[in-house]
Amino acid sequence: MAHRSPLVVAGLETRDGESQTSDDDDEIDLENLKLNDNSTWKSSYSSSSGMIWSSIPHRPTKIDSSNDTIGKTDLTNITEDISSVEDAFMCFMPKIILEKILIYPNLEFTQKNASNERTEKITIMELKAFIGLLLLAGLLGKSKKDLKCLWRRSPLKSPIFKATMSRGRFQNIISCLRFDDTKTREERKQTDKFARLNVSRHKMVSVTTNAGIQMPRLIYGTAWKKERTKDLVIKAFLTGFRGVDTACQPKHYQEELVGEAVSILQSQYNIDRRDIFIQTKFTSVDGQDPNRIPYDPKANLADQVRQSFARSLQNLRTDYIDSLVLHGPERTHDKTMIVWRVCEEFCAEGKVKQLGISNLYDLQRLQQLWNDSKVKPSVIQNRFYADSGYDDGIRRFCREKNIFYQSFWTLTANPHLLNSSLFKKLASSRNGTTEQVLFRLLMDLGLTPLTGTTNEQHMKQDLDVLNWKSFSPDEVKQFEALLK
Ligand SMILES: NC(=O)c1ccc[n+]([C@@H]2O[C@H](COP(=O)([O-])OP(=O)(O)OC[C@H]3O[C@@H](n4cnc5c(N)ncnc54)[C@H](OP(=O)(O)O)[C@@H]3O)[C@@H](O)[C@H]2O)c1
To answer: Domain NADP-dependent oxidoreductase spans what residues (predicted)?
Structure first.
């Protein structure tokens, strides 16, 4: 066993009956860690639990007045009370906030550890450490699940937490510091006002469909990406997308490469499957490349759907699909209903969370589907273009029934909108592009557009729109006038 520096608390791992670090965990040689030549490491805090946390780089004060013409002393005065990293932290995270944040996790912590009287509650210092780790994970674009990895192997080459607390305590605390999730949110709102903050964030980035599930407002489309599919999906998710659209249609989609990407996102980037919204489609024989039909075209229609769905699950390496969409209506309503009924079975079995339909431009047929279905359509995915009158009637029906309208061809079909004086004015008012303006206006109308951009800069811009505030009712009206 490697020699431990005094910074690591002796005996802490066993003190609370928590686990000993296992042999495969690397030890960290803190004595040899240096920030730079004029930094030394100084332990600064000893919590009541006996844990020592925080290695504060102590920099000797340098006084260099040779070029000091703009009054560094004035600036120093402003910050004279700040002598440590902790003081600086307290400037933007005062103690009272930390105490409030800790109320709920400590309630949960106490309940979970009720049988062990000796387990101490989470301290403010530990909370600060976790916030630091969350910030680090955020900076590195990682999900909160990555925290465990950061504990063991930090990108800074020093597994920060491992040096400071046992794995058991780390895991114990992290399980209570889940700030929120959709299941517990309503319950938490009763006792924890911070739960509401996450509700607001969720509303910005996702919608709740009529099936009661969260669907991202902006979904990453994977058509025509061929062998680039896997890398682009990974890039999209690391940039911030949380929804992906594909189809069991090898002619246009590489569903199996989406599956590879989804698997890598889970295993290598610790993005939870529950945080990945997967939408795929059943494409009937008419829409398939005759040489690459992913099911037996001679089977009856219901079996074709079953085989296609089984292939989708296999391709996407998952046991459930968030959203299953009919790529188009069948030639007759009765046939559409044969397909729909099979999809309803998948819902009943818990293998699909919601259903939708695509390329349906006839309001009456949508109404028929609505009336005849047991599981109502949650989404319609259509080309958003002038030739269909921008689906005005269909969109009205969708609003009534809380069906979400997913637009495609959004940018490609609408250069006239993008070049209009209204869009140019709105883009300059937001310091953005006309493409971003169109995505935001559609969201303001309640649509959930798809984007299949292959460009990282565009991915960021498209996602950035989620953080824009809505356009004013008057601006939205002016946009709607352009759709007439
Ligand atoms: N159900 C169906 O029948 C059907 C049909 C078509 C599509 N879809 C789905 O919809 C997805 C999206 O397809 P789409 O037809 O809307 O086209 P798209 O693949 O999103 O491409 C639109 C064009 O917009 C550009 N673009 C994207 N963001 C931009 C930005 N911020 N600024 C400037 N240019 C930007 C892209 O160029 P860059 O790549 O250079 O950014 C691309 O040339 C597909 O991947 C698929 O999942 C479904």
So the answer is: 224-483
pTM score, two decimals? Answer: 0.68
Structure tokens at 4: 């431990």
Strand, coil or helix: 432: coil
Residue 140 belongs to what domain range? Answer: 12-59+81-176
Domain boundary among 157, 176, 195: 176
Distance 451 CA to ligand 1 centre (A): 5
Radius of gyration of the chain (CA): 27
Tell me which amino acid residue 39 is. Answer: S
CA of 388 to the centre of ligand 1 (A): 19
In three-state form (DSSP H/G/I as H, E/B as E, the rest C), the secondary structure along 70-139 is: CCHHHHHHHCCCCCCHHHHHHHHCCHHHHHHHHHHHHHHHHHHCCCCCCCCCCCHHHHHHHHHHHHHHHH
- What are 279-293's pLDDT values in tens digits? 999 999 999 999 999
The token duo for 17 is 């009956």
> Which residue spans within 157-282 are E strands per DSSP?
206-208, 214-216, 219-221, 243-245, 277-282
pLDDT tens, residue by residue, 113-126:
777 777 788 888 88
pLDDT at residue 142 above 70? no
Distance 127 CA to ligand 1 centre (A): 42
Nearest residue (by CA) to ligand 1, atom 30, is: 458
Gap from CA of 338 to ligand 1 centroid (Å): 31
Query: Do 331 and 216 belong together in one domain?
Result: yes
Last residue of a domain, one of 152, 176, 200: 176
Whether 147 and 20 map to the same domain: the answer is yes
Q: How high is the pLDDT of residue 66?
A: 43
Q: Does 143 fall in a domain?
A: yes
Between strands 450-451 and 219-221, the pairing is parallel
Q: Which helix (H) or strand (E) holds 378?
A: strand 377-383
Distance CA 469, CA 440 (A): 9
Residues with CB under 6 A from ligand 1: 221-223, 245, 327, 358-359, 381, 408-412, 433, 435, 450-455, 458, 461-462
Phi, psi of 223 (to 5 degrees): -65, 145
CA angle at residue 444 from 438 to 323, to 5 degrees?
Answer: 90
On whether residue 202 sits in a domain, the answer given is no
Q: Is residue 360 one of the residues assigned to a domain?
A: yes
